[in-house]
Known about the structure:
By secondary structure, the chain is mainly α. Helices cover 76% and strands 0% of the residues. It contains four helices and no strands.
Amino acid sequence: MTYLTYVAASLAEIAGCFSFWAWWRLDKSALWLLPGLVSLALFAFLLSLVGTNAAGRAYAAYGGIYIAASLGWLWLVEGVRPDRWDLAGAALCVVGASVILLAPRGA
């Protein structure tokens, strides 16, 4: 369930950040910022749902999932296919995130 929460949070964050990118870099209307702000608030809420005892650990593990989701966005939304180095790097990051999330920790 944690991975699904991270994926949902990453999509919300990427969409929110992309709205600012579209407004600033692609000359879209400032109205793009409104759903972007809502999306960023949703991102923050979703990330707070992760079941860990430390926010920093939740954020660190999230980073790996965010990287993989960003490459998915690159391909699906922007139409740029990730290359093998992008995919290898993302795989390393997801493995790193999994180590953080799944490591046995004492009480």
